[in-house]
Design brief:
Layout (H helix, E strand, L loop, with lengths): L13 H9 L22 H9 L14 H15 L5 H4 E4 L2 H12 L10 E6 L3 H9 L3 E6 L15 H4 L2 E7 L11 H14 L2 E5 L14 H8 L6 E6 L1 H4 L7 E5 L1 H14 L15
Parallel strand pairs: 2-3, 2-4, 4-5, 5-6
Antiparallel strand pairs: 1-7, 6-7
């Protein structure tokens, strides 16, 4: 019995590999979990209270694109945090956590070919495994680009040959970066948007760590796109409550982008997605 070859080069996911590596190893002191990046703070009291109050709603199927009140709450947060007004009905998709969206976006947004050649999907190296799996699922060529000290721990996509960039359909960016912690400046985001415009590809910006900071909020892609007057279809951003609100088990996230990009993601989601539950914690508490 055969299996698809498109995932042949995809290694086992990082966390199962790590568990295998550490199996049987006894720690020399108190254990410090440094694997999956799970928040160590308790679930906020108000979230637990809202889930309990709305538990009856788990007896109904949730709206596929997200409850209207959730989409409104997300749009309100984007306006406050990004300084950008987006239509909740056409530019936001509620996600069952960002991993779902980061993977599915490649399926929905990367065409089968570009300029008569196999498309390329750029990812920073190291990268979140969902990026690579999404790229390979589309049949695209996965191209990891080093994000090392020499490049400020962010991928230097602009240094790639123009002919190669002309084959790119999607470029993933994680800022603040995991695991390096590097933050893309407004100027860096603007230059990436200009590069995407010049070579006709989309930026997929993983911003799930954007609300973890001490003093200054990290720059965000929607604000950079608005400031640059960029085509709204050039960028899709992803965020969630998991890290910022210590509720990874709630699986409440979102994607925001241009109407055409979000429409394509919604269409795919209608067949294979699992929307977040319609409960008080995901229908009006997005920040």
């Amino acid at each position: 019995m055969q299996f698809p070859a498109r995932f042949a080069d995809l290694p086992e996911h990082a966390f199962p590999r790590l568990r295998t590596l550490l199996a049987g190893t006894r720690p020399g002191g108190p254990e410090l979990a440094m694997t999956i990046g799970e928040p160590q703070h308790p679930v906020p009291f108000q979230v637990a209270k809202l889930v309990g109050r709305h538990v009856a709603e788990f007896g109904r199927y949730p709206p596929n694109d997200g409850a209207p009140e959730l989409l409104e709450a997300i749009a309100g947060w984007i306006a406050r945090r990004h300084g950008v007004t987006v239509d909740p009905a056409t530019r936001i998709l509620a996600l069952n956590g960002t991993r779902e969206g980061l993977f599915a976006a490649a399926l929905a947004l990367s065409p089968e070919d570009k300029r008569g050649a196999r498309p390329i999907v750029l990812v920073p190296n190291p990268f979140y495994q969902a990026y690579g799996a999404g790229a390979l699922a589309t049949g695209a060529e996965l191209m990891p680009v080093p994000a090392t000290a020499e490049t400020g721990f962010l991928p230097d996509y602009a240094a790639l040959p123009p002919a190669l960039l002309d084959r790119v359909t999607l470029a993933y960016l994680c800022s603040p970066a995991n695991p390096q912690g590097a933050v893309a400046s407004e100027a860096h985001l603007a230059s990436l948007l200009a590069l995407a415009e010049r070579h006709d590809f989309r930026l997929l910006c993983d911003e799930c760590y954007s609300e973890i900071y001490r003093d200054t909020p990290p720059p965000v892609a929607l604000a950079a796109a608005a400031a640059a007057g960029a085509d709204p279809e050039r960028v899709v951003v992803f965020n969630s409550l998991s890290k910022r609100s210590s509720v990874p088990g709630l699986r409440s996230g979102f994607a925001a982008g241009g109407p055409q990009s979000i429409a394509a993601m919604k269409r795919l989601r209608a067949y294979g997605g699992a929307p977040p539950p319609r409960s008080g914690a995901t229908s009006g508490t997005s920040g």
